[in-house]
Design a protein that fits this description.
cell wall biogenesis/degradation; binds 2-acetamido-2-deoxy-beta-D-glucopyranose; mainly beta; Pectin_lyase_fold/virulence; 7-stranded parallel β-barrel; glycoprotein; glycosidase; elongated; Glyco_hydro_28; single chain; Pectate Lyase C-like; 5 helices
Length: 413
């Protein structure tokens, strides 16, 4: 099918060099695209810049045409929000750029509201059978947002791309530049694959590119994030409530907060599930965390379960917390003892994790009292602290696996 053989351009170079670190790329899932010839739809439309707000034209083209191409020489100016939900059988081939304006008064008042963690987004993309590719760029114009947020923490900043109520989506060969906040949210998605995405969000000022997570997966099932390079200022990938069956493979994350489960169990009355996650072949550099699980404890929090999570083949360099479980997240020891976490953590594997930490404690497995963590496995762990001797700490759990002896007080023999 023509749709699946688009030009890869520069992005392919990155793909090749990431793949060199791990097994060759074979997605176990590819959306079953079947774009019927719909006589009411024009087959292909090409969109050039108008000089004004291109958002309504882009939206209309996507609604009316099966394939919409934005040529390489074109930068569309996106000045108003785009509701592209409920689509069917669409191919958006972005070879050029979508540049979102940094009109803060407009966007902060008009971005689509995302109730989860009180956020907004520029763009809702949803429906069934959607291919978004082309080697082009989403430019979020983030610098002004980061600078403004630094002095106004209640400023709502837009997520660049939200895959919203969607099934069978492939996002491939896209660059994402300077997102004001999260780069990607998968919100109620099923069978969504990202492949060869290049994310860059680095501030030129003294203000951080705050909260520029690569991906957040929320209430979504069967998601894959593959073969991508991320330079950002918050989680590289985060698994939020009800992220299930997620594969993360061949990522190169720099400057991030790591591959992160959670935080979970924050909101009273809510039950959060993260289950069946495999994150493998990850290179993590200059990061706050490597492989992380965090769940709330204390009074007035929620509950949930984190089950069957594997972190495998991580190469870490200068990471503050290369391996971390924190089941007393945001809770002091007294409160955690009195109100242990109701988010259980079970069947966790840290396999083949190597590299360096920036602190003596290179691995910290810390659970709530009362046996709330079970079946925690560590194998082939080789982490060092270049400035001294590395230490491995643990509390309130039993550790198994060939590296369990690194955690002598918790090792089950
Ligand atoms: C991966 O990240 C490392 C450290 O930041 C960098 O040196 C390397 O060039 C990156 N590789 C790719 C393919 O981007
Ligand atoms: C987006 O458009 C759909 C279809 O027109 C509509 O049902 C929905 O309410 C809109 N969503 C938002 C958040 O405006
Ligand atoms: C920072 O400056 C460089 C060089 O001018 C530019 O390429 C880059 O896009 C800028 N970054 C941001 C976030 O604006
Ligand atoms: C901070 O941002 C909020 C939300 O956009 C806005 O209502 C408020 O006026 C801003 N505060 C300041 C001091 O600019
Ligand atoms: C997660 O799924 C469970 C089971 O379907 C449901 O009870 C719970 O409300 C969901 N949680 C969230 C945050 O959506
Ligand atoms: C655990 O998760 C992995 C990766 O998603 C999956 O392949 C495997 O089937 C799951 N195991 C169980 C027992 O569900
Ligand atoms: C451990 O991970 C590294 C880095 O991804 C990989 O090169 C190596 O083959 C892995 N070792 C095993 C035994 O899988
Ligand atoms: C621990 O947290 C509890 C509940 O949030 C708080 O009341 C208490 O003062 C804290 N104790 C210490 C020693 O910080
Ligand atoms: C660790 O294992 C021992 C022996 O099976 C058991 O008695 C204990 O409750 C376990 N501790 C935790 C924190 O799970």
């Amino acid at each position: 099918m023509r749709f699946l053989t688009t030009s890869f351009g520069i992005a392919t170079l990155c793909l090749t060099s990431v793949v060199a670190n791990g097994p060759s790329f074979k997605p176990f899932f590819r959306p079953p695209f079947n774009f019927p010839k719909n006589p009411e739809n024009k087959e292909t439309c090409t969109l050039k810049a108008s000089g004004g707000d291109d958002a309504p034209r882009f939206l209309k083209a996507v609604q009316e045409c099966t394939t919409v191409t934005v040529p390489a020489s074109t930068t569309l100016s996106i000045q108003t929000r785009m509701n592209m939900t409920g689509l069917r059988d669409k191919h958006i081939q972005l070879e050029g750029t979508l540049k979102f304006t940094d009109n803060i008064p407009y966007w902060s008042g008009n971005g689509f509201f995302i109730p989860f963690q009180t956020q907004i987004t520029f763009w809702l993309l949803g429906g069934t059978n959607i291919l978004f590719d082309g080697g082009g760029t989403l430019d979020g114009s983030g610098q002004l947002w980061w600078d403004t947020f630094a002095s106004n923490s209640s400023l709502l900043r837009p997520i660049t791309l939200t895959i919203f109520e969607a099934e069978n989506v492939l996002v491939e060969n896209i660059h994402m530049l300077n997102s004001p906040e999260w780069n990607n949210l998968v919100n109620e998605g099923k069978n969504v694959v990202y492949n060869n995405i290049n994310i860059h969000a680095v501030s030129n000022s003294s203000h951080n590119a705050a909260n520029t997570d690569g991906w957040n997966v929320y209430r979504s099932d069967n998601i894959q994030i593959l073969n991508s390079v991320i330079v950002n200022g918050d989680d590289c990938v985060a698994f939020k409530p009800n992220a299930t069956n997620v594969l993360v493979e061949n990522l190169n994350c720099t400057g991030s907060h790591g591959i992160s489960v959670g935080s979970l169990g924050q909101f009273p009355g809510m039950f959060d599930i993260v289950e069946n996650v495999l994150a493998k072949n990850v290179r993590m550099t200059n990061a706050q965390n490597g492989a992380r699980i965090k769940a709330w404890a204390g009074p007035n929090v929620g509950s949930g379960i984190v089950k069957n999570i594997t972190f495998e083949n991580f190469i870490e360099a200068a990471v503050d917390n290369p391996i971390i479980i924190d089941q007393c997240y945001m809770t002091n020891a007294t409160a955690c003892a009195q109100f242990p976490s109701n988010t259980l953590i079970q069947d966790i594997w840290f396999n083949n994790i190597t590299g360096t930490g920036t602190k003596a404690v290179v691995a910290s497995l810390s659970c709530s009292p009362d046996g709330r963590c079970s079946d925690i496995n560590v194998n082939d762990i080789s982490l060092s602290f270049p400035k001294g001797s590395a230490s491995f700490t643990c509390q309130n759990l039993n550790v198994t696996g060939d590296a369990a002896s690194l955690f002598p007080t918790c090792a089950l023999t």
